[in-house]
Amino acid sequence: MSQIPVTEVCIIDLKAPYDLKDPSTPEGAIWASSISTLKKCPGFRDIYTSSVVEDRSKARMFLNWDSKADHLSFYDTPHFPAFRAQLLSLCAVPPIPIHVLFHPAQPKTLQAPVTEVVMAYFPPRHHDGAKGEVGIYMAGIRDEGGGGRWRG
Question: Which SUPFAM superfamilies match (predicted)?
Answer without folding.
Answer: Dimeric alpha+beta barrel
